[in-house]
Specification:
Radius of gyration: 13 Å
Largest sheet: none
Order of helices and strands: HHHHH
Distance between the termini: 33 Å
Oligomer: single chain
Number of strands: 0
Helix content: over 70%
């Protein structure tokens, strides 16, 4: 599993250097860095993803989780509040 995360980083880092990089590149990088236990790199990539697309609640959620795990409760609360707002305004549809 760690090999997959390392390969993801190797493949995504060059894409992230492109000035037109899609927010999902940074979301995927954040997830890979999270899996590699590189919290600060994960958080910075989640922040970049949510800056490019404020409706990308998954990036905000993971930022909040990692901030909370690090004991940064104010930062965690801010990110999670944004995630709730983003999820309320997203185009996701739930089927009961």
């Amino acid at each position: 599993y760690m090999g997959a995360a390392k390969e993801a980083v190797a493949r995504l880092e060059p894409l992230a250097k492109n000035e037109d990089a899609h927010p999902y590149v940074f979301l995927a990088l954040g997830l890979a860095y999270k899996d590699l236990s590189k919290r600060e790199l994960a958080i910075s990539n989640f922040q970049k993803a949510s800056t490019l697309d404020p409706s990308l609640f998954e990036a905000l959620y993971w930022e909040g989780r990692l901030q909370g795990d690090a004991g940064k409760n104010a930062a965690a609360a801010a990110a999670l509040a944004k995630a709730i707002t983003a999820s309320d305004s997203s185009n996701y549809y739930w089927i009961d």
